[in-house]
Structures are given as C-alpha cells and as structure tokens.
C-alpha cells in the first residue's frame, strides 16, 4: 500500500457513530491515547447525543475542544428518514410520457407466494410527478430542448403545491447531462430554499427506473441530512469543536459534510460501512485472506465479506425493504439506489429485538425493536416487552448488575417478568424460553452471513469471522459453529468498533462515466479514465491514490460485476487482463464463464483515496481494566453451568477451554462449551473450535 498522505496530526481525532440504542465515540490523542465513550442515543435529535458524547470523551481525556483536528461521523439519519417515511414532500420532474416510471419499476418480488405483499409506495406521489415537453434522444439530440418559459411555469406550480424537494430525471439525460443540469439550475433559481437534485449528478447511468429512484431518494432525504449536519456542526462549534466534519459514505470512505449534503444518497449505509472498514483494516494488518464481518447492535445484525483485504462494493442496492441482502429476482422490497455501497446483508435481530409467539405457537425474534427508549425491560426505563437482551441477562450471559461501563443498570427481575408471558405461551420455563430465543436469533443471523458468502459462490467455512457491535461477541461463536467457521476474532473495543473504523478510514471520492461507442478505441477509453482520475485528484489533492474500475457483464445480462483495472498504461494487453479477471470472477460467483466476444463494458469508474495517517494498530492497545477480580456465575447452555467471568486482560496467549464470559466495557464475549479461547498479540479475543 502507498504511504499515507500526511504525518500524524498534532491533535485529537474523534470518531462518533450513532446506533439505534447507543451512540459510540472514540477519541485518539496525538500521543496514541485511546479514550472510549458509550452513551444512550437521543432520538429524535441524534446529533445532540453526538455533541454530548464528544464533550464527555474530551473531558475524560483531559483534552480541550480546540485540540480536535478531525471530527469523523457515521450516521443513520438518511436511512431513518426512509424507514420512518419522514422525508419532505418530494416532486419528480421528467420527460412527458415517463411520469409513472417509479410505479412501473421492475418485475421483482422479494417473496413469490405472499399474495398480501404490495410494492412500496413511491417516495414522490403521482400528483407530485410533473412532465416537461422536452426530449433527449438516445443519440443525445434535443427534440425539442426544454423551454425556459415552460420550466418557469412548472416552478410556479411546484411552489403552489408546497414542494420541498425536486428530483429532475429526464429521459436519456446520461448522454446529455448538460440539458438536465440546465433544467435543475432554472428550478433552483425559481425555487429558493427548495432542495433540487439532478439525476446525472447522483447516478449518471442508463436504466431509467434505477436512475429516477436514486435521484428521488436523494431529494427525499436531502433536506433532513442537510438540516442534521448543519445543526450538528453548529452544536459542535458551540462547544468549541471547530474541526472539519467528515462523514462515512456507504462505500467505506469519508467525505466532507458539504459534499454529503449535496449527495446524501451516498451515506445511506454510513454506520454499517464504518464497522466493515475497521474489519478491513484489521484483516490487512493480520494478513487474513477471507473474513466475514459480523456486526450486531441493538436493532439489527449485519454481515459483510472481505477478500484479500477488500470488501465487496455493490453498484446498487435497496433501502427501506427490511433485510438489505435481497438480490436479483428476490429484490423489490425497497427503493433502488445506484451509488457505491459496501455489500452488507442485514436482518432485524439485535439486542433490543422483541421476542414473541405467533398464532401457531412459533417463537420469533424481531424485527420489531425496543430501541433505546424505553429499551429492554431489564434496563428499568419502562420497557415491558421481552427482548434478546432480557434473554441474555436471564441466561447469565450478561452482567446482572450493569452494562456500558456501569452507565446502564440491569434489573434481572424485570427481565424474567417480561419473559414470563412468552414462557407461559410456550409451556416452558423462563430460562428455557430465553435459550430458545437465543437459538432462534442465531438461526436468523445465518441468513445474513449466507447472503454474502454462499450466495456469492463463497464457502463460509473458508473464512474467519470478526465479530463486533454491542451484541455481536455474544452470538458470534454459536453463529460460527452453525456455519462451520472455525475461528472467531473479537477485536478490542468491539462495541465501539464502528467508531474505531471512522478513525482509520480514508477520505474517498468516486466518479463515473457510462460506456459510449467511441470508447471502443483504447486511446479514447484511456483519455476518459485520465479525465476522471484528474477530477478526483483535484478534489482530493495530488497525493490521492486513484483506482480504475470497469463495470462488466456478458451480452444479454441485466447485472454487472465491478472489476479493477490493473495498474499501468491502458493498452490492449491490459484490457485483455481485465477481461480475464472478469471471466474468473463471474465463474466464481455464478459457476460459469463466457468468452471475450460476449463481454460488454457498462460503466467506467475511478475511486480516489486520500490515505489516512492512522493505522489500526495504533488503536489496538489493551483497554483499561474496568471491574474487579474474575468471578463465576451460572450460565445456561444445554444445561446450567458454573462459568468463569473474566476481563480481556485476564486472558493468556495459550488457549483454554470454555465455557467463559469475557467482559469489556462496551461488550460481552461468550465462549460456549467445546470452544477454546486465547488473546493474540493484537489483543484480540480468539475463539476456535476443535483440537488446539
């Protein structure tokens, strides 16, 4: 890897990640000091929790706010706006005859045999979708161009209808982007204060439905993201934290807040991407070739695959459709988004997931969640519904006294009380019900891991699992055994690992051009790559590392694979090597490969990265021990077993037999009977199965 772009900054870097239950902050000092902080999230004003946690962590570190040189943030504000349908009143402006493209969509169903299923309602209602008489032909000709008078008349209608955001999505605009941008600029001039998005500025690609959907999502969440970031920056400045605010993108790189406000569609998967980035850096440090990143928090469990130090980055995905692992013919539950995103599969199983019994007597876990308010019953904050956290307290896996470094008191009697009605419905005792819920959750989570491994042609048994999140280390060993994974790694600060990922992430920008016939000439293709590379280099600086990528497919296919172009001057031989890489990846993913004559190029991409000066090794020091001497408490597995309860620092380098409970400030790791555990030179907890 090329050297980083700058020396270690003489100041504090603060990474803040918002979860559904907790807000996690880690501060890294100029001398390598690592100070963690975990506080309850503060919905609906999540930014207030970030400001509070930031000032608290700086106070704990004895650092002045003015000493912060980088404020790094992972947020769920864009996702929440869609999941809660709380975005603004959004309009779509399109070419006459294409008003209904959002409703026509694609013939895709996430479930084939559920007759009660219906497609999600478009984010822009039909009455808020408007047409213009202009037309961009497939070859880029205007027949006719947009009339300025017609656009101004339309702006008056939008104003009268109370529209707060507009997505401009003209037919074939990807071959004539200047025309669409002209319409967007006219609307901005006529509608001050209205958020206007041109589809070519967020997804300049073919496929009218996906481009329109992406632009509509961008417009729908744009004002919410802009307002959130504005308030957050103001709150930080009020506390004298004036460092630049960088936000994690779905692709795993940081981007300045001003650019994010223009393209909020790039941060839909902001929080989950930060955790995968941390696992990526750890995998590179340890030389792990295949890694499953497993992240379980208070609301959801997520999985992602990292191969040879790089995560899979999808060209498109869906948001708002429940599990984010739908692919191909099973997609259609959410809103398509065409923006680079780490391929993350998600299920609604987290520490706050509610346990229930259906009419047929089957036990279910999630997807409904108790969230942070009121939270699990055992928190004593008014929650009465049973959750996975309540089950874990009842089973003895979690401390019966307090969590999060003592910040959250635990009431085991309230956990048992909440679980009792479920136990009565099942005809079981409370511990048996809790154990059943634990096993159901494990079964649910195998779906997410399989979505990024076996469904991609990868064998999960060949991978190492890295588990993090507040609840991930509690379930990782059982999940790994279910999938045949032999090694689980729990890194330091597992409950704050996404915040740690923010500290070690690179700044990143992406540019794209759809493939055009003139690019059949290698010289023209090379010139376009050079133009895109120069653009990201100007935005990031001359020290940026630039990667070239091609979206490729076989003739007749609908979906493409993203292939990295080898370094060096673009020649026929280099393109032949790129096609060979595509054939190999296609065979690995789908089980077959075609010939060069069938290969089609779809998009040219460049990714520019400004490499951070911080290595993940800088933050892997052993956390300060919190608590007293090792103890023992009864844990329920197949039967009740007296189980040692220790701290991470109590583990040695030689493997010892489970069962064991290992408590950190921010998470608890469960080592079940039959497993072995030790601490490696990076202070990771390493759980293995079988003989030593």
TrEMBL record:
**Signal sequence residues:** none
Domain Hydantoinase A/oxoprolinase intervals? 211-509
Source superkingdom: Bacteria
**Pfam families found in the cross-reference section:** Hydant_A_N, Hydantoinase_A
> Which residue numbers delimit the Hydantoinase/oxoprolinase N-terminal domain?
13-190
Q: Which SUPFAM superfamilies match?
A: Actin-like ATPase domain (SSF53067)
Q: Which PANTHER family match?
A: 5-OXOPROLINASE RELATED, HYPOTHETICAL 5-OXOPROLINASE (EUROFUNG)-RELATED
Name of the protein this chain belongs to: Hydantoinase/oxoprolinase family protein
Organism, as annotated: Microtetraspora fusca
What high-level taxonomic lineage is stated for the organism? Answer: Bacteria, Bacillati, Actinomycetota, Actinomycetes, Streptosporangiales
């Amino acid at each position: 890897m090329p050297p980083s772009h700058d020396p270690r900054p003489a100041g504090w870097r603060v990474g803040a990640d918002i979860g559904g239950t907790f807000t996690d902050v880690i501060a890294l000092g100029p001398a390598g000091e690592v100070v963690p902080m975990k506080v309850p999230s503060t919905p609906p004003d999540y930014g207030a929790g970030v400001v509070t946690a930031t000032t608290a962590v700086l106070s704990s570190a004895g650092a002045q706010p003015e000493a912060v040189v980088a404020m790094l943030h992972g947020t769920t504000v864009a996702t929440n706006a869609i999941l809660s349908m709380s975005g603004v009143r959004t309009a779509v402006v399109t070419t006459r005859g294409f008003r209904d493209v959002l409703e026509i969509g694609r013939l895709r169903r996430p479930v084939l045999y559920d007759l009660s299923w219906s497609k999600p309602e478009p984010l822009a209602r039909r009455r808020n979708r408007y047409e213009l008489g202009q037309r961009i032909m497939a070859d880029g000709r205007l027949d006719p161009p947009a009339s300025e008078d017609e656009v101004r008349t339309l702006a008056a209608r939008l104003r009268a209808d109370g529209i707060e955001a507009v997505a401009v999505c003209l037919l074939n605009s990807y071959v004539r982007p200047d025309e669409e941008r002209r319409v967007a600029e006219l609307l901005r001039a006529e509608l001050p204060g209205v958020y206007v998005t041109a589809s070519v500025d967020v997804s300049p690609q073919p496929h009218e439905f996906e481009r329109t959907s992406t632009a509509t999502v961008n417009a729908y969440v744009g004002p919410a993201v802009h307002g959130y970031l504005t308030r957050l920056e103001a709150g930080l400045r009020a506390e004298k934290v004036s460092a630049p605010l960088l936000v994690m993108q779905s692709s795993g790189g940081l981007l300045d807040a001003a650019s994010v406000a223009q393209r909020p569609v790039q941060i839909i998967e902001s929080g989950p991407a930060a955790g995968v980035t941390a696992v990526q850096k750890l995998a590179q440090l340890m030389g792990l070739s295949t890694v499953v990143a497993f992240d379980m928090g208070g609301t959801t469990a997520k999985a992602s695959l990292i191969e040879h130090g790089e995560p899979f980055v999808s060209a498109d995905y869906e948001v708002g459709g429940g599990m984010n692992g739908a692919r191909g013919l099973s997609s259609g539950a959410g809103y398509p988004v065409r923006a680079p995103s780490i391929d993350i599969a998600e299920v609604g199983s987290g520490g706050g997931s509610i346990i229930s019994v259906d009419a047929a007597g089957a036990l279910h876990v999630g997807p409904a969640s108790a969230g942070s308010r009121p939270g699990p019953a055992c928190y004593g904050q008014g929650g009465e519904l049973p959750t996975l956290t309540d089950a874990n307290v009842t089973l003895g896996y979690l401390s019966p006294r307090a969590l999060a470094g003592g910040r959250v008191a635990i009431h085991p009697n309230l956990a048992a009380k909440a679980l009792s009605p479920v136990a009565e419905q099942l005809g079981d005792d409370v511990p048996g019900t809790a154990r059943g819920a634990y096993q159901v959750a494990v079964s649910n989570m195998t779906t997410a891991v399989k979505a990024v491994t076996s469904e991609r042609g990868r064998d999960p048994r060949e991978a190492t699992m890295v588990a993090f999140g507040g609840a991930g280390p509690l379930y990782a060993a059982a999940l790994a055994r279910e999938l045949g994974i032999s090694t689980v790694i729990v890194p330091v600060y597992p409950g704050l690992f996404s915040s740690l990922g923010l500290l070690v992430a690179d700044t990143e920008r992406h540019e794209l051009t759809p493939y055009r016939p003139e690019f059949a000439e290698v010289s023209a293709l090379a010139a376009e790559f050079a133009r895109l590379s120069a653009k990201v280099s100007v935005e990031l600086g001359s020290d940026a590392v630039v990667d070239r990528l091609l979206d490729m497919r076989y003739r007749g296919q609908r979906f493409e694979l993203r292939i990295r172009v080898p370094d060096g001057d673009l020649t026929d031989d280099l393109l032949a090597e790129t096609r060979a890489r595509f054939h190999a990846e296609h065979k690995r993913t789908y089980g077959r490969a075609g010939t060069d004559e069938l290969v089609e190029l779809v998009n040219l991409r460049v990714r520019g990265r400004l490499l951070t000066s911080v290595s993940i090794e800088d933050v892997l020091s052993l956390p300060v021990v919190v608590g007293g001497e090792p103890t023992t408490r009864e844990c329920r597995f197949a039967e009740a077993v007296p189980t040692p309860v220790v701290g991470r620092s109590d583990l040695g380098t030689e493997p010892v037999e489970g069962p064991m409970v290992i408590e950190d400030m921010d998470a608890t790791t469960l080592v079940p009977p039959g497993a072995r555990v030790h601490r490696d030179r990076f202070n990771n907890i390493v759980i293995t199965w079988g003989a030593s």
